[in-house]
UniProtKB/TrEMBL annotation:
Active site: 7
Coiled-coil region: none
Similarity field: Belongs to the glutathione peroxidase family.
Keywords: Oxidoreductase, Peroxidase
InterPro entries (UniProt xref): Glutathione_peroxidase (IPR000889), Thioredoxin-like_sf (IPR036249)
Xref: Pfam families: GSHPx
GO biological process, one term: cellular response to oxidative stress
Gene: bsaA
Name of the featured protein: Glutathione peroxidase
Amino acid sequence: MNVASRCGLTPQYSGLEKLHERYSGQGFTVLGVPCNQFLGQEPGSAEEIAEFCSATYGVTFPMTEKVEVNGEGRHALYERLAPFADGDGHSGDIRWNFEKFLIGRDGRVVGRFSPQTEPEAAELVAAVEARIAG
């Protein structure tokens, strides 16, 4: 998911870390993708972002370099993710920080969740558990 350190949703890092810890031994990994496209809420360098996440939320899951998730500079990963619709039918541009995607072991997008969906929400956990179960 795209992440930001200065967003009202930043506390989701705690839930994401719990999700990562709970399922990482079963082949699941949370991947944070910093993005500064939403009101400049991720202004730091990759090192500053990683330090903040580790020190503030105990994040151990991997983080990428900062990328663009919308527009002409959209990263190739988000070119592939954006067309996939969430449960409410939203597809296309990423709406805000912490929009979540679930990708299966085969590389296919199998779920998209709104930024407001908490990492420990029943529907997100159920989707993760279904993918782990096979």
